[in-house]
Amino acid sequence: MQNALSDRDLLVSLAPEVEANLDRHIAAAAEWQPHDYVPWDDGRNFEFLGGTDWEPGQSELSEVAKTALTIGVLIADNLPAYHRELGKYLNRGPWWRWVGRWTAEENRHEILIRNYLMVTRAVDPIALERMRMAHMTTGFRRPGMHLLDVLAACALEETAAAVRHRNTARSADNVIVATIADRLAADDELQAVFFANLVTAALDLTPDQTVRAIADRIADFHVPTVELADGRNSDDVLAEAGIYDRANEPTLVFGPLLEEWKIFTRTDFTEEGEKARAELAHLRPTA
Hints:
Number of helices: 12
Oligomer: single chain
Order of helices and strands: HHHHHHHHHHHH
Distance between the termini: 30 Å
Largest sheet: none
């Protein structure tokens, strides 16, 4: 195996790539405002302020759209935990500036979805708040990882999130919901490009070490899950709705990234790198 680089060495060696990709990301990202997507004229007070509390008949969304947006906002609500976990590793110079940018973008997703759900009375606000409290109390914690594992995992996660949002948009019977979902997907796709580009740079810097991280992270990949108020798991619900099915991850998440990283055509792996590549052989595209 080629000489492995420490996380500290990688933070320094990849810093110019982070700086360049942060500049590229900011230049490519469309400026948009969460408030523009919310039909504020639909809003009214709840009983606490003299209005009317929520009733199921007030929601005009399909069950699929309500479920997808509920899961989306609960995942986004857990941002403090994701920020903490990412910040433990990407904690200096341009890395830390990227963490700040990424966090701000993800927080904007939560703001938009929650405002839309409350103003349109699309879901039971009390049930949603109880789920938020439970989900955030449980939190999120990564197992101990090296830097390359974190980068590979984030590339996979952002790609998967974009797939979920794009499918939500396609299945939506509401124009605003479709527009919101497409907007969130565009952000996720740009974030996925950022992390994928850093993995590409790491492959050129330390091929064996990076492909090992890719194989490990694909082997144990799992999107964030949410326990819904009725006891159902978000994995099952999203799969049934055709929004995100883990059975499709090889085609929609893993395959495109492996192709982008040229995993099956690179010629710079040594024996250890070849072992990791062999573990990914089942994902190799067929002619």
